[in-house]
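Hi there,

I know you've been waiting on this one. I reran it after we fixed the sequence typo, so this is the corrected version. Both the input and the resulting structure follow.
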Amino acid sequence: MCVKGLYVFTVLAGLAASGMLQVSGMRIYTSEEVEAVNGTDVRLRCTFESSSPIKPDDVVITWTFRPLKGGPRQSVFYYQRKPFLPQEGIFRKRISWAGDIMGSDASIIIREVKFTYNGTYICQVKNPPDVHGPDGEIKLRVVETASFSGLLLLAFAIAAAISGIVILLLIIASCRRCKRRRQRELEGNEEAPRKERKDPTACHPSRAVHLYLSETSIEIDSSDGMISDPSTGDSSSSEEEGPSSDDDDGGDDSD
């Protein structure tokens, strides 16, 4: 008998080791404790992991509540193919479905929490054949005002948002400044060629302008704007004038 039992155990162990035998089980993940201010909304997050493929039509989700002062469990939420909200009790019109079956999310939202909501919330998920496994439990603590850690997180979030806005404004201002600078540089580059093409001879009449054309100098008098005859140092002209004067002198002698 013992030998037969040992044989069966050995076979089962071998099948499990080879992967032919799978043990069904559901794993559920929740926060241990959640704090919420009286009159605000709170999200009870519950995610699950199944060893079997998720079939939306077969998944069953159940949320129940165990009061802080003790007592029987109360139904909070039920899901099978579609969400079923409580129609009576303290959670009537206070529960919203916030999960996603294909995303392995079974979370819910409690709106406008009250001090009577203090207690433990149990999340149970079944995905046949995964119907066994520990339930997820969340302890909700409703307080009058946010704790120091909550206020610190809120202040940090506000400061981060303000810092992001300031940085964005600085980036926009810097981009605009660079754009204006580039426009000024382009305008300066366009004006420079225009100055270079300016006629150098166009000046005020009171200034003397000397033009040199074909080795002949033309002088413009700034006083009356008249152009005088060009003065040249040609020796041939002086030679031609010389004999004419001599001839005149000779004629006088002959007389």
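Quick highlight: Residues 21-145 form a domain with the Immunoglobulin-like fold (CATH 2.60.40.10).

Best,
R. S.
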